[in-house]
Every structure is written in structure tokens, then in C-alpha cells.
Amino acid sequence: MSHEGFTSQHRAIxxxxxxxxxxxxxxxxxTTVLGFLSLRSPLDPIxxxxxxxxxxxxxLIAPLMVLSMVAVHAYASPGVKAYSLSALVFMILLxxxxxxxxxVSLTVSPQIEATGxxxxxxxxxxxxxxxxxxxxxxxxxxxxxxxxxxxxxVFKGGRLETAVRVLMIxxxxxxxxxxxxxALADMQVRNIGIIGYALVAIFVFLLLGIVFxxxxxxxxxxx
Length: 223
Hints:
mainly alpha
């Protein structure tokens, strides 16, 4: 397969970003599990310090996912560039939305919530239904899922690439399935999406880093 646009810079940045995403997702998954275990009721939202740690990790993960998709687009053969570009665009949308949501939640929300205004939970609470919760679901269960599903056709050939493609499809489908919880207004069902973007994605980005590291760069690239 031709990777004529894939330079040593793409390889270095893509590999580092993908492995960093995998590492931070492991930390995110562990923090999420600890947060769930701390709840008195499964219907309660995860509280601090777990939730604040999760927000900080998302702010780190989102731009690294974009960098990974930049490398995927460079890695893609000419025949599937439309898919890889779509995957990159969807990942940028994910990163923009979720970064805004979690930055606001970390900085402004506590001060506004302290006012005790009755409309605040409807907009800023991560307990369904609320505006910020809906936006974050849009980011992860929709745009992340689309990014994975559009990136999957880029990888074809050997067993490693086949594994990446299959895991991307699984990650995307499970993330999309989380939207069923929105339709049912049941956030326990919505947690299916977390399996897709926070658990399966660990292995997606781990293998992506390996693929990038094994790929030969373009001829004449001395970077």
C-alpha cells in the first residue's frame, strides 16, 4: 500500500500522540471505575475528585486524538483520503465540543452553581438532562463514533492493520449504541458508549502507534 504522504514527522507525532492517548485512556478508565465504585446509587453522577480528574484527562486526550488522526490522514493511500479526511474533521469537532464543555465545567460551573439559581443544573450539570451533558454525548457518542468508522477503511492489508480496522469499527458501533440511552432517557444504557470510546479505544490507539512506527516514510524524507 502506498503511503507517499507519510513523513517522518507524521510517524513521530502520530506514534507519540496515539500512545499518549492510549495511556491517558487507561488512566481515564481506572478513574471512571473508581468513580462508579464510590457511588451510593448507580443513578448518581460521579463526584469529585474523580470527576475533575476525568475532565482534566479529557482536555489532554482530545487534542492528542486530533494529532493521531492527522497522522492517519497522512498514512491513508490516495484511494481512501476522503475517508481519512472525514475522520479527521469529525475528530476535530469532537475535540472542540468536549474541550469547551470540560473547560467550562472545570472553571466557570462551580462559581455559577454556587449562586443556587434554579436554571443552572439544566445547563451545567452532568446529570441528565442538561445542556453540557447532551453536548458531551454529541461529541463522544456521535462525532467520535463517526471518526472511528470513517478511519476504519484506511487500514487494510496485514493482520495488524486488520486488527486496527476491526477495533475501530467495534469502538465506533459501541459509541453509537450509547445514543440509545439518550432516546430512552436512561444513562445506564448510555454507558455502552463509554465502552466504545474509553475502553476499546485504548487498544485502537495502542495499535495505531505500532502501525505508525512500522511504516516506512516517503522516499527522500530526511526528517
